[in-house]
Amino acid sequence: MFKKLKKRILLSSSLALLFISTNVTTSFASYYDGGLYVLNGRLTGNNTVNYYIDSTASSYSTFISNGVNAWYYPRINGTGSYCTPYNNIYFSNTSWTDSEMDFQAKSLPYADYIAVTRFYSYENDANGNDVQVDPDKNNYDFCVVTYNTVIFNDLDSTGNISKQATTSHEIGHVLGFDENNKSGTVMAQSNYRTVPAPAKPDNDSLNKRY
Ligand SMILES: [Zn+2]
């Protein structure tokens, strides 16, 4: 039996160490396909990622809905023709208790992070709190994407380092993809990114993993 009820308390009381973030100024040498581990949740069933948009992130709803659509229908270069073969990941906007991907927004004390994605297990610790998961070591059940409003709100609305591209990048983390420094994929850190949305390498990775 899992509980998700304590998550907000956990998030507000601690700034956890395990997260993957979008960093403006530095790059990470990393795997093209991310870690070995993936999102469980509903993916073991119908391959649908349920997502929830907290009221703090409601002004970003368009970026989120465009972001999930972009992962559902990736284009070859993030723009232009659609990728084949199609992937079989679906997304559904749902309630907080049912979601595997929560979006929230707040001012974070990280001067160079646009957004942060954290990974959790449905299992609770002795105090009933959700347990954070290292996605390089274990599968995980749900994620929380936190926009850092201080940085995010200054981004452009379109382009490779935009609000839209950043949102798509964080969704990629939820799907299990790590940072990389290869152009042509939305998972590239912003200073290497040459596409505005998930592209063929991202779709190929998705097809390999789910
Ligand atoms: Zn990132």
pLDDT < 50 runs, ≥5 residues: 5-17, 24-33
List bound small molecules.
zinc ion
Nearest-integer average pLDDT: 82
The class by helix and strand makeup works out as: alpha/beta
CATH top level assignment: Alpha Beta
Determine the CATH superfamily.
Collagenase (Catalytic Domain)
Question: Secondary-structure element sequence?
Answer: HEEHEEEEEHHH
Question: What CATH architecture label applies?
Answer: 3-Layer(aba) Sandwich
Please tell me what the overall shape is. globular
Distance between the termini: 25 Å
Helix content: 10-25%
Question: How many domain units?
Answer: 1
Rg computed from alpha carbons, rounded to a whole number of angstroms? 16 Å
Describe this structure in words.
This protein has a single domain (3-209), classed as 3-Layer(aba) Sandwich (Collagenase (Catalytic Domain)). Helix content is 21%, strand content 20%. The protein has helices spanning 7-13, 61-72, 149-152, 163-174, 200-209, and strands spanning 20-23, 48-53, 90-93, 101-106, 113-124, 130-132, 142-148. Strands 1, 2, 3, 4, 5, 6 and 7 form a seven-stranded mixed β-sheet that branches. Strand 2 (48-53), helix 2 (61-72) and strand 3 (90-93) form a beta-alpha-beta unit. The longest helix is centred in the N-terminal third of the chain and has 12 residues, at 61-72. The structure holds zinc ion. Zinc ion binds at residues 20-22, 169, 173, 179.
